[in-house]
């Protein structure tokens, strides 16, 4: 096709319709070509995708082997599509030839499973004022390679390695045909399509919005996911307190959805403050006004419904229990399974606190078996408490208030690395790390003794862990091949995934999964849509593969396997999850060239959530320039250090304020200036004084007139240490040495002015 003009023209003919029409406005027609050197699961070796104004309207690939239209208004042109299929098949041969040409130039081979990718983007633009534009870009193995200069009519190298290839490319593939295509053929084709798809182009689909937060070692992040909107242009930003925009450190990218709509996720790091509000603001052409979605830390509205209902049920069941107890009808009512009646621990919700009732239950049957320990009760509630507990045991082994999360962190290396397992899995329940597996242990290791009661289930868990290992190994190899990475001692690549399921207070379930490769997030699982979404443009191929091979499996894993195991672990981990360990606090100061810095180290606390801030004069918060990170300790507790820069002022006070669930009220630790620098002056002076006094007394007794020398040196020390010039670093200290020089039998008064350059040795 390039011999006749350009392959762009041939590819575009996939959806060329010979229908005369003129459509006004600014429009763009562009398409993407991808050629893969070897078969890859879930990815066609050759594909073309065509867009008009950013909307996907047609495709062709080596799997389906025919041109397809996505617009219903074009479906009646089936015969014409068949003709365009032949043009696309011819183009496929020509594009493969170009890939082989580049592989030959760079001495790339298809051996050892290496995969190489050739990509091409062509476009023409028809502007409002009637002018015409366009561009063409070529990439090889994921890197920009050549760009077509329409004015100079040549292919221009983008990288140093492409310089030699650009000369060969300009000779082998006629650049003038590309210019002709952009200015003539492409524009004519676009004018043919526009009348049929004008309705689709004018459609406006308002965005859907979800706001959420996530915790990491670097702090809190707010996420605003805007999806399902059309057209593509959208503005999304986070606003604090209704007026201050929070800028994201990462550039958000608008990504396409399979249905032709778009999505974007904007994330910002924040330091939660009392009374501060955060909201996501969205501007889109489908909206009459800015859409504002506030972020709420705790959506307690459901509590106002649940609490009265639970209270009413509780009172009803207590009354029923008293009635049945008096009637003596105990045994027949409580015939439940052993799993439901043998409770290790029961948590009753009392507003925000948790009240634990430690009871060992017996299995109630008609025969009233005595080989199982009876319940032991405290106080006068022995008659009511068993019934109250059984109310909450119906339908489940144990009921917990609040939301709970089960998380799995997986790390897989492509090659051995000293001191680090090739494969490692860590399991957490509500940030409590309770289990691990790695290829060195080759077994699942539980760190909580209470999990010993789950021996039979843990045995099954080992089999699941082994299956996980195989699955993650396959995924790692897939990403390594997909991104053309080689493995070995000198080239180690890292695959990581975080999977979690969440059981909320209202009984609903949510989940998420994130996949990273070589330290960069690639794709994220959208639980509501049941699909993997690319977080970067480079990850679109990976997302496509994951959706075809793993989306259904992951949904089953998160909804069934994960939540089922969470219900296993909660009873055994209850005492650990509800434990409260108050924090220890140390405040200190350090000096640097930039000034003084106050440090508040809070450590040994549990659970993880904590708020630490510096307050000046009891009311003014001092914000830290660096985000403080909550780090884990080996004993399962946590630590954090918050540092702020200050300029000491006379009379100003500084204190570290710590809020934690283990504390009844805010812990305030004041910082007291412990100015020890004066000690480093006083102590040497005192030592020198004692030494000189002793020496003077010794000389005096010997008749050597020691008092003269004592007074002389005391005067020197005094002037040296307390001269006004001694209060600046590296100052010149002045003192006057007034002494008496003995010459024979005569004494001569002598005054020497001496100036010394000394350094200030006081330490802060």
What does the model show?
With 764 residues, the protein is an alpha+beta fold. It has six domains: 196 residues, Murine Class I Major Histocompatibility Complex, H2-DB, Chain A, domain 1 (2-Layer Sandwich), CATH 3.30.500; 88 residues, Immunoglobulins (Immunoglobulin-like, Sandwich); 91 residues, no CATH class; 172 residues, MHC class I-like antigen recognition-like (Murine Class I Major Histocompatibility Complex, H2-DB, Chain A, domain 1); 91 residues, Immunoglobulins (Immunoglobulin-like, Sandwich); 81 residues, no CATH class. The strands form eight sheets. An eight-stranded antiparallel β-sheet has the order 4-3-2-1-5-6-7-8. Strands 22-21-20-19-23-24-25-26 form an eight-stranded antiparallel β-sheet. It has a four-stranded antiparallel β-sheet with strand order 9-10-14-13, with no helix packed on it. A hairpin with a 5-residue loop joins strand 23 and strand 24. Helix 11 packs antiparallel against helix 12. The radius of gyration is 38 Å and the shape is globular. The N terminus and C terminus are likely disordered. Keywords: Cell membrane, Disulfide bond, Glycoprotein, Membrane, Signal, Transmembrane, Transmembrane helix. This is Ig-like domain-containing protein. InterPro entries: Ig-like_dom, Ig-like_dom_sf, Ig-like_fold, Ig/MHC_CS, Ig_C1-set, MHC_class-I_related, MHC_I-like_Ag-recog, MHC_I-like_Ag-recog_sf. It is found in: Cell membrane. It holds the Pfam family C1-set.
